[in-house]
Specification:
This protein is about 55% helix and about 5% strand. By secondary structure, it is mainly alpha-helical. The strands form 3 sheets. The chain has a 3-stranded antiparallel sheet with strand order 5-7-6. The protein has a two-stranded antiparallel sheet with strand order 1-2. It has a two-stranded antiparallel ribbon with strand order 3-4. Helix 6 packs across helix 7 (about 145-155) and helix 8 runs parallel beside helix 12 (about 280-295). The termini are far apart.
Length: about 450
């Protein structure tokens, strides 16, 4: 990754355009915040494209900037250069926001019966685990998804810092979910950081505490080149105070900030302030989820933005750099993040559709043997899994974690599958019981007629 080229300054072109009426008309005719394809492009990309006839790339850029200046909205928060952050909402972003309002908002019900019944907690827990794994992997954790998921489900102690980071993220996601109705404070931000970095930092005094002037913190690429140097440590407390006011809708913006945009901007501002020596990205993404849930985008409980971000981490990084190198214009980051959220929601819908199809297939199998309706949906999910994984061992603790249910409920679910007729085999392991998926599970189901 490299630092994008700084865009040309428009000051040298003003006199030229004013003295050449034909050129001025060309500029104004091509004055648009986006290109012909509706893309909000940075100079780094626009300079390589063919400009409108009669204009150079630099002149086209100036025309683009003039159009953006007319529609941009200013925030009360400021960047390193002392100038305010700003953003605009072109049609492409408006369209995505409208889509999210329809498909992720608390005011719109989702046509998914699984989310309104006993399996809701199951899918919430699954998404929390997925986000905790992917968010950690974005920051360099190397544990595989399968191993990490098993660790959380079984309640196993982490074996190393990579696993600890993932477990921390999982706990942080639960923490912000529980705080969705509370106002954000500097103390809560520090607590989120404490949770995500517990037992992972070499200097434990930095856990939950802001960096100091002695901490030489920079954002670097894989070669060690410095991409971004955050604000001085002396500014952190005041910046965090202002960020909290913004997240709580207490700042002095004289315009409406769409809740999704507010959540995305909060994500950016925490990353930009970089208040901690490490764990800033994980803290920022956790706060994004808090903000989305606070504004009743309840489907945020079920999605993983980090899973989508990990598919193209360079684009994620460049969305920060474009904003930082082009007059604090947050539109680049907003444009990228709204697309990421939309993709995450779409992926969840596809996942739910597959779950419904799988349950229907399991229902068909059980219906053939006249036992439909005997089991709850959690038990159906075990039967479905057991049919595909003979020899798999289920535990009460793992079932409890996966579905977000009480221990006694998990115990009854598994015992119900191990009683006559025995779909699972109950095996005693010390004082505890485990439940085995037998190799002849299909014939056992058939005997249930």
């Amino acid at each position: 990754m490299k630092i994008p080229m700084t865009p040309p300054n428009d000051s040298g072109y003003i006199d030229k355009f004013l003295s050449d009426k034909e050129k001025f008309r060309l500029v104004m005719r091509n004055s648009s915040s986006v290109d012909a394809s509706g893309r909000y492009l940075h100079w780094e990309k626009l300079r390589y494209l063919e400009p409108p006839e009669g204009l150079t790339n630099e002149e086209w850029w100036v025309a683009t900037k003039w159009a953006r200046d007319r529609i941009q909205k200013t925030l009360s928060l400021r960047g390193l250069d002392g100038r305010s952050f700003k953003y605009s909402v072109p049609d492409s972003i408006q369209e995505k926001l409208h889509w999210l309002d329809k498909n992720a908002s608390g005011s719109i019900s989702i046509d998914q019966p699984l989310l309104n019944g006993q399996m809701r907690n199951t899918y919430v827990v699954s998404s929390l685990i997925e986000e905790s794994i992917r968010s950690s992997q974005l920051e360099g954790a190397t544990t595989t998804r399968r191993v990490a998921k098993k660790m959380i489900q079984q309640g196993r102690t982490p074996h190393d810092k990579n696993e600890q980071m993932i477990l921390n993220n999982y706990r942080a996601m639960i923490f912000v979910k529980e705080l969705k109705n509370e106002k954000m404070t500097p103390e809560i931000i520090r607590e989120i950081h404490r949770i995500v970095t517990l037992k992972t930092l070499d200097d434990e005094s930095k856990i939950g505490n802001y960096r100091t002037e002695d901490d030489k913190v920079h954002v670097v690429d894989e070669t060690g080149e410095v991409l971004f140097s955050p604000p001085n440590a002396s500014e952190i407390e005041s910046r965090i105070f202002e960020i909290c006011k913004f997240s709580n809708c207490e700042t002095t913006e004289n315009h409406f900030v769409h809740p999704v945009l507010r959540s995305i901007i909060l994500h950016f501002l925490i990353s930009y302030a970089h208040p901690f020596v490490d764990g800033n990205g994980r803290t920022a993404r956790a706060l994004f989820y808090w903000s989305m849930l606070r504004h009743e985008y309840w489907l945020a409980e079920f999605i993983s933005i980090s899973k989508i971000l990990k598919q193209a981490p360079a684009q994620y990084g460049y969305s920060f750099l474009y904003a930082e190198t082009d007059d604090n214009d947050l539109t680049y980051f907003i444009d990228h993040e709204t697309l990421v959220i939309q993709k995450a929601v779409e992926e969840f819908y596809r996942y739910m559709q597959k779950q419904l199809q799988d349950i229907e297939k399991t229902n068909e199998v059980l219906s053939e043997h006249d036992v439909k309706g005997r089991y709850n949906l959690r038990q159906y999910s075990i039967i479905k899994h057991a049919i595909r994984h003979p020899g798999y061992v289920y535990s009460i603790g793992e079932h409890k974690t996966i579905h977000g249910i009480a221990y006694d409920t998990a115990r009854k679910d598994l015992l119900g599958l191990a009683q006559t007729p025995e779909i699972l085999i109950k095996v005693k392991d010390g004082k505890a019981y485990h439940f085995l998926s037998p190799s002849d599970i299909n014939s056992r189901i058939e005997k249930m007629k």
